[in-house]
Design goal:
- With 148 residues, the protein is mostly helical.
- Helix content is 74%, strand content 0%.
- The protein contains six helices and no strands.
Length: 148
């Protein structure tokens, strides 16, 4: 690859990330490692890892928020809430097939619960004190489908 082609690859990262990914994939498949844009590749991979961790946290907060509302407002339970909990469980189980993300979920579970507790209080307009200060569920218990 010429110097101009390497510079174009680096410029492509800023202009069209998908095209850059395709070019990087083609270079890797061809074994042309010396031609790859490693500074941007490193940045991109780090961003992917951060995104995955944020997604795990967000899905935990959503699941926990709905569980808290489900428990504290039984008269307002709906199929929509049930569906949201099912979706979050399914997506989390898939994400947590990665041991790294499972470890992350375990590590942030307390913080996710604290955020979900505040969110549930906001959404229900109930006092924060109505919700237990700590979650009584382990990660595996959260991910398990409830008995019908």
């Amino acid at each position: 690859m010429t110097t101009a082609e390497v510079l174009n690859l680096r410029t492509l990262y800023d202009r069209d990330e998908t095209a850059w990914l395709e070019a990087m994939s083609a270079l890797a498949a061809a074994g042309r490692h010396a031609d790859m844009d490693f500074p941007h590749l490193s940045e991109y991979l780090a961003d992917m890892a951060k995104r995955d961790r944020r997604e795990v946290f967000s899905r935990l907060v959503t699941l926990l928020t709905h569980l808290l509302k489900w428990e504290r407002q039984p008269e307002r339970r709906s199929g929509s809430w049930r569906g949201t909990m099912r979706e979050q469980r399914r997506e989390l189980r898939q994400l947590l097939e990665s041991g790294t993300l499972r470890n992350h979920a375990e590590a942030v579970l307390g913080d996710a619960y604290a955020e979900a507790r505040r969110q549930a209080a906001d959404e229900t307009e109930l006092s924060l004190d109505v919700f237990p200060p700590e979650s009584a569920r382990s990660l595996d218990e959260l991910l398990a489908e409830p008995a019908a």
